[in-house]
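batch_manifest entry 22 of 60
target: Signal recognition particle receptor FtsY
source organism: Gluconacetobacter takamatsuzukensis
requested by: lab member K.T.
priority: normal
notes from requester: please return tokens only, no post-processing; we will run our own comparison against the previous entry in this batch. if the run fails, retry once and flag.
--- input ---
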Amino acid sequence: MALGFFSRLKAGLSRSTQKLGGGIAAVFTRRKLDDAALEELEDLLIAADLGPNVAARVIESFRSSRFGTEVTDEEIRTALAAEIARVLEPVAVPFVPDPQHRPHVALVVGVNGNGKTTTIGKMARFYGEQGLKVMMVAGDTFRAAAVEQLQVWGDRVGAPVIAGPPNADAAGLAFDALKRARAEGADLLLIDTAGRLHNKGALMEELAKIIRVMRKFDETAPHSVLLVLDATTGQNAIEQVRVFKELVNVTGLIVTKLDGSARGGIVVALADTFGLPVHAVGVGEQAEDLRPFSAEAFANGLVGPSIRLSSPDGDEKKDGEGDPA
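--- output ---
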């Protein structure tokens, strides 16, 4: 039987959970919550990429509510998950294409290697299964591999891919794709873009031109600008958001590759720093491993409460109950 998404989320976050939850278990084994314990916990939260602001607020909350009391690692994990969920709840906003726009145009941006093209393919599958007609645009025209990858996804999920010749003008391609999508009654048009951030000026001009040219046909396009981030980059993701917010009007985030990282806490830091909607997270290579973001599920998956800890003899022991069937 295939794992449910919550099980896959927990599995994908296992490295982050082991880093954060395992660290908590090492610090708190029926220990009084004093200044030294709080300092260790704050260091642990910062090392887990939650960011200094979130870490400071969590510590202050614990100081005001539990200081001087004896606590267990399970109590700390439960309270920490609740604090993280409170940070994430305002930004856990599913991406819902606006039916008033047919098609709803989503410009997908991000650094090369962050998983933009794969994310677009997974989104096409997800929204196609919701009954929407989805079309994709291979707008990273200077990278033949990106065009081919998107075409493979198109065949896989049954969504048309609009591509041009190598090195074609991305803005012209987006314009033609928008006209075709409108004519064919598409609900969602997903546009892949270049991500050569080392040449910021050229990338800014290319993205601005795509938007400017599309608006000659639909002055409201694009209706969303989705920034794809790679969780394995940790704090560098913060800088990427800042840079892309300078280039375009980013409306929401998608965080990928959480399964390959012990840095899942970066999602919390992103939420706290920018307040941008986090639409979805990716926790694996399969098409179904990109799903709408849930604050509570993510917080529980990141912190525990069900984790595997190493016993002194090197064997693993189970802490808490398993995932419900």
